[in-house]
Specification:
Length: about 180
């Protein structure tokens, strides 16, 4: 019997690795993911309630959040503070772990330097904070930041400086597939 995986996350999942991943793991896993962008951590937390029936059926829950959280639209700081981001990630982890599932968190991917609202400095700080909160809880880390950082210009679209190129989608989907198959 195939294991069921739930994918939650922002547009890096929705229009990125989540478009290719189901095909790469279809022999071993059934994948369910919402057609909605999970955006920032508070929205992920809210979705845990909305999608509780799908989550309860999952063997593995894979989620990401960060691009919206680190967004600095007005020049007055990130959408979420580092403390709020960490606190909400901890809440998400606690909810998911109570369900007794294997939980995986994908780190936030880097952006091109030309991105006006997100900075790689902030992304690295938020990723570090995420690891400090999630690893002690037993959450498995899917380090997509490092996968994409090897060639930011080749893996991130020049058009918007944040979303994955076809190459970036393939790399992230393949890295995620490999990690998930090793959990099987």
């Amino acid at each position: 019997m195939k294991k069921k995986i739930v994918l939650l996350g922002d547009s890096i999942r929705l229009i990125g690795y989540g478009t290719l991943l189901p095909e790469l793991i279809k022999d071993d896993f059934d994948v369910w993911q919402p057609e909605e962008n999970s955006m920032y951590v508070q929205h992920v937390l809210r979705q845990l309630f909305n999608f509780r029936n799908k989550i309860d059926e999952a063997d593995i829950i894979h989620f990401n959040s960060g691009e919206w959280d680190v967004c600095n639209l007005f020049g007055d700081g990130t959408f979420n503070s580092l403390d709020e981001y960490s606190r909400q990630l901890g809440r998400i982890a606690d909810v998911l772990l109570k369900k007794g599932k294997t939980v995986v968190f994908a780190t936030t991917t880097p952006v091109r330097d030309a991105n006006w609202h997100n900075s790689n400095h902030d992304i690295r700080e938020f990723n570090k904070a995420a690891l400090e909160v999630l690893e002690p809880k037993g959450i498995i880390i899917n380090d997509l930041y490092s996968v994409v950082a090897e060639d930011i210009n080749g893996n991130i679209c020049e058009k918007d400086n944040i979303h994955l190129t076809e190459k970036g989608i393939k790399l992230c989907a393949e890295a995620t597939a490999k990690l998930l198959k090793n959990l099987k």
